[in-house]
């Protein structure tokens, strides 16, 4: 069997495995949502607002969740009707509306954040080194999906101006210059509140170092 054919088969098996994970996650999300009287989309918006710890405009929510403006508006209106979110004028622009959680919404968001626990338990059966490699692989996959325009950009360490990747992780750790901390691969953040997007040239340089590590 040629290397090219083997590679294609391996890619197909990985893709199929990811699709099976997607099926499990979709099923679990709907099971939780039905019990909570919400939809998975509404739960996702609640968790996003909780993670951001502050008001977000409708456009920001749509961009972060990869939803259309109409779907986002409908979901937020429903959540508002349930008393889980409220709309207020944005502080920096009185013409724009910002969405924030109510006290009930924060409680619902905490519950919504717990539905993927079934997946955490499965990942928890992996050895520490397997989890580290798995997370690193996922980060690389997420980044490629961003570059291809299939998902919105995340506030990831690997695209941050403060991130200093290690050229040899076996000898030294990565570093965040802003927080002045060292980080292993599993410490890298997918969504960091102090993220500052690096310029394109810096991103490419950082990614080249990070992606080529063994």
- Helical amount: 40-55%
Strand content: 5-15%
| CATH C-level label of the largest domain | Mainly Alpha
> If you average the pLDDT, what whole number results?
88
- How many angstroms separate the termini? 26 Å
From the spread of the alpha carbons, the general shape counts as globular
Helix run count: 8
Domain unit count? 2
Q: Can you say what the CATH homologous superfamily of the largest domain is?
A: Winged helix-like DNA-binding domain superfamily/Winged helix DNA-binding domain
Q: What name does CATH use for the topology of the largest domain? A: Arc Repressor Mutant, subunit A
- What structural category arises from helix and sheet content? mainly alpha
Low-confidence stretches: none
Give the biggest beta sheet: 3 strands, antiparallel
Architecture of the largest domain, according to CATH?
Orthogonal Bundle
Strand order of the largest sheet: 1-3-2
Q: How much is the radius of gyration in Å? A: 20 Å
Series of H and E elements: HHEHHEEHHHEEEH
Give the beta-strand count.
Answer: 6
Protein architecture, described:
This is HTH marR-type domain-containing protein. Residues 11-143 form the HTH marR-type domain. The protein has 214 residues and is mainly α. Helix content is 55%, strand content 12%. It is built from 8 helices and 6 strands; from the N terminus they run ααβααββαααβββα. It has helices spanning 3-36, 40-52, 58-65, 69-81, 103-112, 117-123, 128-147, 200-211, and strands spanning 56-57, 85-90, 93-101, 163-164, 174-176, 181-183. The strands form 2 sheets. The protein has a 3-stranded antiparallel sheet. It has a 3-stranded antiparallel sheet with strand order 4-5-6, with no helix packed on it. Strand 5 (174-176) and strand 6 (181-183) form a beta hairpin. Helix 2 crosses helix 5 (103-112). The mean pLDDT is 88.
